[in-house]
Amino acid sequence: MKIKGIYLLYRLLQALGLPIVLLYLVWRGLRQRAYLKSLKQRCGYLPASFRQTVPGAIWLHAVSVGEAVAAVELVRQLHVRLPRSPVFVSVSTLAGYETATQKLQGLAGVFYAPLDYVFAVRRVRRALRPSLVIVMETEVWPNLFRETKRGGAGLLLVNARVSDRAIARYRALRWFFGGVLAQVDLLLAQSEEMRQRWVRIGAPPDKVRASGNLKYDFQAPALAPESPVRGFVERLHPRAVWIAASTMPPAAAGDADEDDAVIAAFRQVSARQPALLLLLAPRKPERFDAVAQALARAGIPFVRRSGLAGSEELPLPGALLLDSIGELASLFPLADVVFIGGTLAARGGHNILEPALAARPIVTGSHLENFAEIATDFRAAGALVEVRDAATLAAAVSDILEDPTRATDLGAKALSCARARQGATAIAVRHAQEIFARHVPRYRPAQPGFAFLWTLSQLWILGGRLNRARNLARRRSLQAPVVGVGNITVGGTGKTPMVLHLTRRLKDAGWNPGILTRGYGRQSLHPRQAVAAGAHVPVSQSGDEPQLFLRAGVAPVGIGADRWRVGRLLEQEFGVDAIVLDDGFQHARLDRRLDIVLVDALDPFGGGYPLPLGRLREPLGGLSRADIFVVTRSESGRVVEGAEHFLRRHNPRAPVFHARAQPEAWVSAATGETVAIDALPYARVAGFCGLGNPGYFWCTLESLGLHVEACIEFEDHHSYRPNELRNMGRQFREDGVEAVVTTEKDLVNLCEDADHLLAPLPLYWLRIGVQIDREDEFLDAIFQRLR
């Protein structure tokens, strides 16, 4: 209750400040058009391409430029460990967005971080559906943390630190931060000192570990041979190159302006080094023009990086103003000496590891609070040169340039220090993978309708319990043992292929099995019917799923709502000695020898809420009744391990198996001829389906390497009318496709002359089988119970 009260107070204060925040955003946006473009994403509206229909993404919250750079290697290794899970990186600054977009191209989607308001964070969470949220360094976002846990995702803080300036503030608000940090699954601090600081401000000690600094694992991008900067430097042939990196304006009155300090020092050094080239890289893009004016006032010849075209000349000594984003790290190998900004001005310093990994001698001011641990290591090893103030900067740079032996020694020591403590990224990735494997995200509807849907959901639960209690009181048994194949969610989980697969295996083992199914959507006058294997029955009298069982010709099929009476028909007319019950996990009136529950890896638990709030047929507690779990479509799911962990938590006794769809062949709807799965002679196809989970069909087509030009979805069990097929055929022909593909379930729901209505486009359906990992063990568990 205390934690909830703290959050309510925080949200109340946020609500009071919301108008001011929005006015500030609009004012800031009017001043900077790039910022204006970011406002929509800051309110949680992401591009359509970011929206995930399958849960299991990774959201990495890296606010600043430095954090975005430190995240590159982390994202790269996450791709290796979790290749099915897309990574999305959110940043708060314009410079961070530019840097992340460039450095993470092809690795992650980049967007502007949402404001820490519930409405914005919740929109992002619903769009990405992450299983894991990773927050970098110092950021503590109460609403982000709480919404992450409410959505069922794991929460990991990496490279965590608390600066000297922030520690006092955080400790004063320990009563608040203790509740916020309790939401975290694991906090990986940069050092033991930082670990102790996090504990002092309220983080649970058992959730905080010291794991090292990710920035030690930075891999500088190689400078491309065609780089304009490389070509420019090679044309000038300077005797020495000085890079002044990430220079900053004053932080307070009386503080140094680092751009002015570098320009003044350059004039002094160039008097003794006439062929000196300065690469000046201001930290903030809005400073580019001001620094250009400062260079002009000082009479220093300069060229702007944005103006390089390949033929510029520059009299030396002179300067190249690096008015670009994301390029600096690759340029350090060109330098003979590097000054790191943010260290003369009281800004806490910037990353010294990038030039260190290039083995360059480094000069800094005394302000390295943001990198205190790294700075301590470098000082102890004599791997950097510190200056007291702007007045001593020129002498320090000049001494290094005039003593090549010392410069080489400083660079070697810096490289040794940078490499000595690498490995934090591997630790972070290992823990990220572990947390990812324990979580399955759930989704909630929009807040305005939540209360109404929640009420209906509670009524659904109550009705289900009453119905189950009534049916249990009237429960009856058949002479033949019954194996139930069902699920806990509405929509497709692959029950039909699994029923057929299991029936075939029972027959191969010497049983005389039958299939028992309700026959959803049928219009027969007979409430119960038992049909021989392979018999022809109109779809209207059987329903679409029984039609698939009959077409397979594996076993007799009993169809009807009263499964006990239909089962008796199968026993009497066909002498079956084992029955496979299709979709009967919630059917309490028929006694079963064991229940096999299928869980769809693409969306395991229907959002985590019962109908109509989510897609659960009953609360998740019903999983305790299952005897065997099968995670289907495991080859396409992102949260397979998380689903298995979740199942074991609810039912530790039932074994868990994985199954995958096995595409077997394409079958022509017109002729019945089969085509090898990899030999469909068409490059451009269109598809349609009416399934409980249509996304899986599209995933299967993609895995087969088909280029699907158009995808049309219908509701589950849809019966296709002539006009619909005629319109689809016209649309597909306009799209320039060469063939149309669908599923076997949709094939039986087509009207007569469907192939003619789509003509001249040929229609094929995909025959699907099932492959179960550890199938011998799976079958043994079933046969033992049946006997």
Would you kindly provide a written description of the structure presented here, covering whatever features stand out?
The chain is of the alpha/beta class. Helices cover 42% and strands 19% of the residues. It has 29 helices and 27 strands. The strands form three sheets. Strands 15, 16, 17, 18, 19, 20, 21, 22, 23, 24, 25, 26 and 27 form a 13-stranded mixed sheet that branches. Strands 3-2-1-4-5-6-7 form a seven-stranded parallel sheet, sandwiched between helices. Strands 10-11-9-8-12-13-14 form a seven-stranded parallel sheet. Helix 1 (2-31) packs antiparallel against helix 2. The two termini are 53 Å apart. The model has no long low-confidence stretch (mean pLDDT 89).
Supply Rg: 33 Å
Helix content: 40-55%
The biggest beta sheet reads: 13 strands, mixed
Q: Poorly predicted ranges (pLDDT <50, ≥5 residues)?
A: none
What does the overall shape look like? elongated
The beta-strand count equals 27
Contiguous helical run count = 29
Task: Give the rounded overall mean pLDDT.
Answer: 89
Which structural class do the helices and strands define? alpha/beta
Percent of residues in β-strands? 15-25%
Q: How far apart, in Å, are the first and last alpha carbons?
A: 53 Å
> What is the subunit arrangement here?
single chain
